[in-house]
Structure formats: structure tokens, C-alpha cells
Amino acid sequence: MKKIATLLLILLIPFLLFSQQTDPLWQKAEEIVKNSIIIDAHEDVPTTMLKENVSVKRTKGHFDLPRAFLGGLTAPCFAIYTNHRYDNNHPAEQGLHALEKVYEFAYQNKDRVLIAYSYKDILRAKQQGKMAIIITMENSTPIENPSQLLIWKRLGLRMAILTHMKTNKYSDSSTDIEKWGGLSPEGKEMVKRMNELGILVDVSHLSDKAAAQAIELTTLPPVASHSCVRALNNVARNLPDDLIKAIAAKDGVIGINFFPVFLSEKVSKEWEKLMSRYNELREKYGENAREIIRQEMKNLPKATVKDVVRHIKYISNLVGVEHVGLGSDFEGISFTPEGLEDVAMFKNLVYELLKEGFTEEQIKKILGENFLRVFKKADEAYWKNNAF
Q1: Does residue 110 belong to any structural domain of this protein?
Q2: What sections of 22-174 are H helices per DSSP?
Q3: Rounded to the nearest 5°, which phi and psi values hold at 144?
Q4: CATH number for the domain that contains residue 316
Q5: Which end of the chain is least crowded, N or C, by CB within 10 Å?
């Protein structure tokens, strides 16, 4: 019976593809992608760059340059990520090594890629048919003290998350023990200095208390580059309504994360069971446990592009469409929703948004205009405060 079902599906694929391509909404989706600025607020591509060449088509992962152009991606935010094991062991060296790879990539592809030092570079990239790289940071320990922020700003840093999965010297994490009751004194100094330099404060990964404090302290629009809605899936990494409202009240933006564990309650419950099993297997099999779990991941429930739309719709209804965007977490997640497997697939998201009744104007805001607005505000604040 299973073989018959598979055969029927294979026979139906050409018909389904033809039906989709002749669907007026699909054609509209193609047009919107072509004419939109698409900003993905969080991609872990620099970590992949340390191991692989992303200038050419890859058979794995979520990002490479050919697929990025195929998907219409205008400006991915490349996150300089430093593992917490380096927090007290030369984190600046690790961060700069990843940044070096980003610059190397931009130089090798200078006919197609540029570094975005301001929002104007994003606009220029769109006009010239290029891709603009926005440099961001996830776990800010490579910035060893707030006085070093100016150097990182000059190197192109536009947005930063103070911590990641562990509490560090700047902030409590949403997935670790509370040490500071939110931000540390040095973390608060970091936020103030980021305001002066036009570097956006990103509250993804921060504990609720730390995020609330950062949002209150920042004079720039706060952002959550890659977070989902806790009311739809009660996991610590997702944002509660009060924080969503606080971000919107300061004209900020939330980028919806594509990780199925954050999108779907059904997936997250099974994921928790799988992670418990992983800890048991690791005691028994060591590093071989990873491959066992990797195979078992294939049996997890599936999330789809519709789940991403569900989170977008929730925030739009709660605080307005002006405060939601995209933050895929590509290259940093173990698996993806069906229909959003990589950077070539943004058209599928636009199609589903059209089916849900979003207008072209609203979709363009979600795809990138909302994040473009906050980057512009940050640049204007910097130019006003630093006329040199």
C-alpha cells in the first residue's frame, strides 16, 4: 500500500507543479519576491564558512550564494557566533576569525556581494542586483568590554545579542540559570554604548528579565532577530506577549525563527523527549549518540511554512504588521519547516501569506521593509551623535 501511495504521489507531482505555476497567487508571489527587499535577520552562515565554501552550490545546509540569489535574498544578517566555551578563553580571537571569513567571502564575490555599513548599502545592493551582508553578533563576549564596541562598529557590526544559550558576563540567558536578575552592570553599559553607536540591541536568547531591561534601556528600536511567539508554543526561547508589546511600543521588530521546535508545540514536546534520550545515549555511546539522534530526528512531527505564517499572523494581530519580520536561523538549526528548507524558498512563504489575506504592501514590510526601517533609525542616531 505504501508503494502504491508513493507511486501516486510521483505521478501527481507534475500536475501539482503545473497547477501551482498557473495559480494567480503563485504568479503574484513571484512578482513580490522580485520587487521586494528581503532581509533575513539571523543566519549562522559565518560558522559554516569556517568549514565550507558557501560561494558555490552546496548539496546540504540552508545557504549558499546561488540559492540566495534564486530566493531573492537581499540582505542576510550574518551572525558572528562564539561558543560559550571561549567566553573566558580569547573570545575576541574567535569572533575576529569568523569575521575574517565574512570579509573574505565578500571580497571573493565583490561583483555580487557587498558589506552593508549603513541602510543605504542595502538599498544600493537591491538596485545593483547584489546581496548586502549585514554583520551581527550572537554572544557578545568577543567584545571584551563596552569600550571596544567602537572598533566593532567600524568593522561593520550593526546588531548584537549579549548572550546565547548560557548566562555570560553581560546577561542572563533564557536557557540557563539566572545570575544577574537580568542584565549585569556591564551588560547595561553595553546597551548604553550600543545606543550611542547605532548598534541595534537584539533580545533573542535573553531571559525575560534581561530582555525587558534591555528594551527599557535602549533608545533605539529593540529587535528580537530570531524568536517566535510563546502564546503559540510555550518554550523559553519564545517571546511572551508583554515583551512583544514592549518591542512594538519602541517601534522594534521581531524576526520569526524557522526552527520547528519553536514553531510547533507538537514538535517541541517530541524534541524534549528526544533530547532526554540523547543525554542517556551519550552516557552509553559517547559521540556516537549524535548519529543515532540525527536518524531519529527524521521521525519527529513536521512543521510547515503555514506554522511560520501562524506566528507572523499572531504578532500582526497583536501589535501590527509593522513589527514582524523574518529571522530564519538558517545554518544554525537542525531541521527546517517543510516548504522553507533553504534560502531559495522565500517564495513559498509569500504564497502562503497571500493565501492568508496579507496585502502586497504588508508582505513587503514583513519581508524586509520593517527591518530596513530600524536599521535606518539606528544609522540616523549614529550620524547624529558621531559627526566624524
Answers
A1: yes
A2: 24-35, 45-49, 65-70, 91-108, 119-128, 149-154
A3: -75, -20
A4: 3.20.20.140
A5: C
